Protein 1
Amino acid sequence: MAQLDLRELNATEFPIPAEMQGNVAITSLSKVYNWSRRSSMWPMLFGLACCAIEMIATAAARYDLSRFGMEVMRASPRQSDLMIVSGTVTKKMVVPIVRLYNQMPEPKYVLAMGACASGGGPFKEGYNVVSGIDMFIPVDVYVPGCPPTPQALLYGLIALQKKIDGQSLANLDDVPWYGVGPSEPTPIPILGPDIIDPRQMDLIRRQAQLAAEGKPHTVREIPAPMKVAQVQQVPAKTQPAASAGDDPAKAERLAKREAALASKKEAEGGTAQAVAEAPAPAAAPDAQPKKKFDKQAMLDKIRERKGN
Amino acid sequence: MTDNALIEKVDVKGAIAALKEKFPEAVKDDSRQGYSGIIVDRKQLVEVARAIKDDFGFDYLSSATAVDYHGIADEMEMVYHAYRISGGPALVFKAQTPRNNAEIPSLIDVWPGADFQEREAWDLYGIKFPGHPSLKRILLWEGFNGHPMRKDWKEAYYEEDHKPFGSRWPGGWIRRAEELNVYGKNVSYPADFDLSKLSDRSEETLYNDLGLGVTVQEMGGSSSLKTDRLVVNMGPHHPSTHGVFRMIVTINGETIETLEPVMGYLHRNHEKIGERNTFLHNMPFTDRLDYLSSMGNNVGYALAVEQLLSQNARFQKPNYRAEVIRVLMSELTRIVNHYWAIGFLLNDLGAFFTPALYAIAEREKILDLFEATAGSRMMCNYMRFGGVAKDLPERLRSVAVKANDMVRDYNTMDYLTELINERIPRSIDELDNYLSESEIIKERTVGVGYLSPEMAVAYSTAGPLLRASGVPYDVRRADPYSIYPELDFDVAVRYNGDIYDRYLIRLDEMRESVRILKQILPRLEKTRNENPVPPKQHTPRVPLGESYGRVENPKGELGYYVVSAGDEKGPQNPWRYHVRAPSFINLTALGPMSVGHKVADVVAILGSIDIVLGETDR
Ligand code: SF4
């Protein structure tokens, strides 16, 4: 288990009297939160395919996952913090996986283990294979390999711990679960004639419309072949077009976040007000300046409060 | 002709001749180039099959699979491989049907083991089997669009018929498959797809088909203790189902009334992809079938393709060292697999993870050898047509054999000698000492999950499941391959057919494997100077024809049915690549074995079959 190093914690700009240094620690709330969370990450006991065997080997005596506080594998999603998607995700299986993901309490993390879970792997072209679990649920860490060795999985888990260390309570943009209100469950895919992502309903409807009108539909626009040599000449990635319009769920999320930010600002201003109705979603998400964590301002505020 | 002595005398040729005499209209030779066996008129298939089974003693239906000859002949075909449980080669018979309204009578009454295989053929090929009691999809979900293994069915990411794809060659285009699809996903919908009628009926149909109606909770009948009849769903996410397997059980109180296995949650289209791969391409894919025993899978596939290749005058058979290494790897794989199986059977019995930890620790030592030899711990991709990919390494790094120590550098032969002579026998004894006489284990397993020898054969079960029911059938002896004929070992067999015997037989088999391995060591020394690696051949020219290669894998008989339609110049990929997966067919017996037991026993019974989903669902 990771040790909470008091000396490291106390190395802040606030002097602690020498006699109290053994008892008092000054740190940020985020740090304590993150430390406790990342040091007792409970993965879900949940194997999909070949990669699961290596996951079990990682948990067994030789590689020993428990060195990282992760040995408590829970069979129930409601008791776990981390979903290790260990294997090929098929269309038939992605439905239960999304359900399981929705049942996990926040904060929750997803690790895509192996080529299959990351992008379809050797079976990508198969008719029943989902090209990566990130088509349906957000992924925090990808571990390449087919299968990744236990060492690689451990490395991925340590990377996840580092990621958690960097998350901040103060910054609402950072992780969805520190926002206001419950987060939206991921829509559960439907097994129709082929798997249907409810988030793509509009697109599917448009295509069906085209088909009904006898117009060309589901045409794959195969762009002119790009030669290997030309790859380097491709200009730097242009700004992606505003996507909030395409994706109502995202727009809603953005709106909610803005409302939360606004209400927080007001609360800081000293006039506590009820949260107003969410304003209409802004057109472009990138128009919103990111709220940066300003350390100096925070410190000033703390000093002020102390003075009072 | 039901007299036993006569049955034994008639060989396959004799049986075919007699069949032709008996059914002059219906039976004719399969005279296509490279094919063998007979073609049976589908109208008389059931009678002919009955004669094959009852009159000629081919009582074990190993494999039944469909082939779509779209483009070659406008026909689909069911191919059956029937064997005698006393050993010997197969009688191959086929039935053909037009592609439209494909229909072939079900053989489930003759061989109940055809059940799942016919359902698979319906699911993937759309062949109807009149006479099958519950012909529904098995790997895909109810409502899926089309029958994907048909040659004219193209998936969303379809690029070309043959690999290597033009786009992947140097100078080709670099495109992710997602970018070529309007939906950005691996999906395609039929053109007349009506969204307004869209509903996910897969679950509903599943439960409705069980014939339960809506009376899911009705009171028990005359029994004095009032119990409820319930439908309980286990899986696909359940820690005891060894992967993503699902069972729907109807229970009365705690007692199982019916059990319906539901699979396909790991159906990743090995066969469809395999038809596009070149022959060699498929080798690493076989690793991922039964991912606990990849070396064994490799051997089976290599055998199947070598059968075809051997018609080619230039083809060189694997040399002696290659065969020795193949047997070495197969037997080590068997030990690896049985460690795992025993560890997790105990897990299922409630000894949560402790026995498994010990078993996995032992397994790691063998995996170190695999890694040093083949480059990967699990996905070895080691066999080649005509040999193996690499010779054994000079030295390897692993944990000490004698004590659990640091990782050290070893001479491979020394390591192997110690492993085979000391470490493995000791660890088998250890498992035996701690577990076999345990009061709890005996209470939970003796007499539970009984499978009679007749049923075991009828359901086409294979491997430890079959042999624990008292049927000494082992492909290594019944239809020998490689250098098994010259090795001295016994076919392990137990007679009680319950979980406890299935556990014991795994220990027996491990001991027999050690016995084989001890004979392998001097052979390895003797062949030190031979080179087991065949000359490099990236796209071997595989002659026309069909072949069925089968090996005794740890989980049972693993067979590959491969059809090559390639000529000298054409693309070199299999026309058909079918895997007869022991885990899949062994599951046919799960339902009948579980009825009458308690819910907790089902978990143990499943554990004792030892399935792996990569192979079950393919
Ligand atoms: S990445 Fe490889 S090992 Fe992992 S599930 Fe996919 S095929 Fe199996």
Protein 2
Amino acid sequence: MQFDTIAAISTPMGEGAIAIVRISGDEAVEIADRLFRSPSGKRLVDSSSHTIHYGHLVDPSTDETVEEIMVSLMKAPKTFTREDVIELNCHGGLVSVNRVLRLVLQYGARLAEPGEFTKRAFLNGRIDLSQSEAVMDLIRAKTDRAMNVALNQMDGKLSRLIGELRQALLETLAQVEVNIDYPEYDDVEEMTIPLMIEKGEWVRSEIIKLLSTSSQGRILREGLSTVIIGRPNVGKSSLLNSLVQENKAIVTDIAGTTRDIIEEYVNVKGVPLKLVDTAGIRETEDLVERIGVERSRQVLKEADLVILLLNGSEALSPEDERLLETIRPMDAIIVVNKTDLPQQIDIETVKQLAGQKHVITTSILQDEGVDELEETIASLFFGGGIEAEDPTYVSNERHIALLHQAKTSIEDAIQAAEARVPIDMIQIDITRTWELLGEIVGDTVQDSLINQLFSQFCLGK
Amino acid sequence: MPQFEAGTFDVIVIGAGHAGVEAAYASAKMGASTLVLTMNLDMIAFMPCNPSLGGPAKGIVVREIDALGGAMGKVIDKTHIQMRMLNTGKGPAVRALRAQADKVLYQQEMKRMLEDEEHLSLHQGVVEELIVEDGEVKGVLTQIGAIYRAKTVIVTTGTFLRGEVIIGDLKYSSGPNNQMPSIKLADSLRELGFDTVRFKTGTPPRVNSNTVDYSKTEIQPGDETPRAFSFETTEFITDQLPCWLTYTSPLTHQLINENLHLSPMYSGVIKGKGPSYCPSIEDKIVRFADKSRHQIFLEPEGRNTREMYVQGLSTSLPEHVQRKMIESVPGLEKAQMLRAGYAIEYDAIVPTQLWPTLETKKIKNLYTAGQLNGTSGYEEAAAQGIMAGINAASRVLGKEEVVLGRADAYIGVLIDDLVTKGTSEPYRLLTSRAEYRLLLRHDNADLRLTEIGHTLGMISDERYAKFVVKKQQIEEEIERLRKVSVKPEEAVQTIIEAAGGTALREPMKAADLLKRPEMKYDEISKVVPPETACTPDVAEQVEISIKYEGYIEKAMQQVNRMKKMENKKIPEGIDYHAISGLAKEARANLSDVRPLSIAQASRISGVNPADISILLVYIEQGKIAKISG
Ligand SMILES: Cc1cc2nc3c(=O)[nH]c(=O)nc-3n(C[C@H](O)[C@H](O)[C@H](O)COP(=O)(O)OP(=O)(O)OC[C@H]3O[C@@H](n4cnc5c(N)ncnc54)[C@H](O)[C@@H]3O)c2cc1C
Ligand SMILES: Nc1nc2c(ncn2[C@@H]2O[C@H](COP(=O)(O)OP(=O)(O)OP(=O)(O)O)[C@@H](O)[C@H]2O)c(=O)[nH]1
Ligand SMILES: [Mg+2]
């Protein structure tokens, strides 16, 4: 579809503290409006062009706030693409930007192909004519490459699985169609509502399974999301700097130095890590810091691996115990830091509370034990200690967005079936699911249904 | 053969099959002087295969033809022997009407209608050549040397072009049902440069009803509710004839398997491509070997004949095998075969050589319609016929061309598929070919198309006035139900509970109540009665519009998106080979089809999104720089 609404993260990944999700197209304002809540209650659809709005982005399905946000609203034609454009300025680093993008995609936008904003700008007359040849080459190269990349990215297992789901849907559809187009053929089994619900539920659960691997998929592309947590001043930022081998995070002896999330990409013994330094977690009065702490909790939820830092030179505090409790269900490593100082901590208690988890002692200041930590991360990853080696990955944002949409539409179908809506209406959503899954594997040819119809059933005069 | 001038017309239609009659009727109704030249006036609108019209998708086409002001619906309403509404247990999108026709009465009624039409002349004659000068058609030449001149010509010669009938290993030159084949006209078309393909179709044997043992079959009566295709019909036929259902037996299957080597399909005598949706019985038994039996429907061919059509037994096996096959079917043990089934091979022109108006790209003012264009089926033929008639007459009368979109009508889906994708086998309409079938319903055909028919002059002012009133009533009643509240009063609860619903807890809008699956308009109108009661037609529209609002809206959103692509027109005369960056296959296919819009281009096979992007860039560039061609 050439004129639908598109969206993408428009700042380079991992660069800069602010990331922008840009949406362009007729439905840009409407989509943003569905997700945006301003404190004054003013809606984006009622706002004038070229204005900026402060508020929150919420997930309408749960009403949960995802992100504090600044929205730039620009209406056609005075925009880059000459279409309505919305820019969502997110401060929360990559994790939350991805969430924002995902919501935008879920609520009606399509992930832009590489170069698509530029293409639209060109098509709508924004870009100089003399560049047209170059632009055409670019489009050819980029679109083809994007498709190839998308296809190559998918390992055989994923495309096989999607293929199976589509085949099941296609057979269901063919049966519905045959009942519709050949109602007089009483020897064709009637596709009943319970049967349809059963198939629908199966497809739905498979999609959910696939989506649940999407976080693992991200590991491969973006690195294992590794979050460093701990009370203020235990040495989190120091650890990040040590692993990155650069001074990225500010280190001071003042508790609460790190107030927001800092992300760094680093390769540790062959494992790609996306390291996330967080604000020290404790109940705090400082408002700005509290936002940081909120975010730390949020980030924690999405982490693939947690490194919990404890201060060996102090006794285990109730906060530490709470943190140990929080990470119990997660993949985590416990690091007891500051071994160069006199030790107050009861290491046996720590080990007891840690259960199966690795406990490592370090002095980051003196660069002791950090190597052991790196080894442990690597062995966990390669040894399967971190759930990352199921080969069925959904690693592409486009795939993830399509799967989300497919899930929504199969759920619509199931819901309709349960509400006893006529079968040919339910079929609309099943067809849509089939098409969306087809977009993942690059196959949306309508004719296959008709071919299925005639190979599956015996019809004719 | 000496030649002579025989007359001049606005529009000449060659052939009076289902395509030809609609083409001529439409063009004459629009006021263009129209001549129909056909081989045999006793064979007007002849049904060479099953004596029935309508069914899923096809029945909706008949409604659409009627909404445009065409003939098929009116004629079948007067001449059927039975009608049934199909898919009543399903949603409104797929309900469809089917009629069993009295074949002879249908032909007679159609002939009389054409005879009565003011601007229409009927004439028996065999066209042998198209007269073409400078890439424009100027008229036709017949077998006896008569030259008829015209501004536009529509060819609708069905399965007659180089037709060959095949039964067993017998193969002879013939049109359907032993009529004359058209050989010279086929040559003329090929000399003009048209690409043709060889297609095949077939028909089952017929038996004498007096020799059928009905006790071994199941009766299939028509609906008791009176039904009609035409929105104008007010008189309904009540005296209906039933059809009968029986099945093949193990013996039938054995006979076929034993004689497969005699089938021209398997011996290689038949080379034409047959439709996969209409396999012969030998095909079915080979491809679905595990099915122990197949349905056989016995359909009367009319009121004044004992001839029965044996649906399900289409075959081209030799006649002696056909006889044994018939005798192997329960109920037909003693049946007397009146005619053998046969297959027919014929030339069809490759439909991507046509514009969406059905005018040929090669020769100006020449149109083709019907089975000649690679379709199969009476309704498919009629649908193209009416559109070709409208466009040929529009050309002459200086009116705008009419192209129906995929969201406007099944007719639009059919023609777009043909001219954009072409077809590798005889094309039949199926509901699944339409993306927006919820919008293309049996019940709303008039709402979709009456306006167009009236503008063209094919719908009378009187009928149009009634239509406008109906439309207004629908809108008002929907509006009313959206506004009026239903309160949880006892009388109301009784009605709701009687309908199997759960009682109201708080007041709700009548429209929302109607959205509950168990609620029908009838109940709602009892709960909140309108000032004047709605007709069943109006009630039906109100109910569907409200009940399926969500789905309809979703479909409309898709349609609007597609419309934007539809509105991006591609200028004429683009040299696709000169556009750098287009993939090779895309270049070739775009050059063949010469799409008129980006949307159409995107439906062409082998044209991928990257090609569409490049095309868009190119068009934009052309527009900005005023480059064209
Ligand atoms: C054996 C057989 C089996 C079929 N089976 C099916 C089926 O199972 N299902 C289905 O949907 N459809 C079937 N059909 C197809 C259906 O009959 C046609 O699709 C439909 O009748 C086509 O309409 P038409 O107007 O295009 O052509 P036709 O109805 O064939 O009409 C062609 C007209 O052109 C005239 N004509 C031809 N040549 C000339 C000439 N040179 N000069 C003047 N007039 C000429 C003829 O006299 C005739 O009036 C079958 C057809 C045949 C023959
Ligand atoms: N003695 C000793 N001091 C350390 C060690 N690791 C870090 N420190 C010091 O502890 C102080 C706090 O370190 P940071 O890295 O800022 O701690 P943090 O956990 O990021 O603290 P927040 O700012 O609250 O997030 C600094 O003065 C560090 O130099 C260690 O192993 N031994
Ligand atoms: Mg810090």
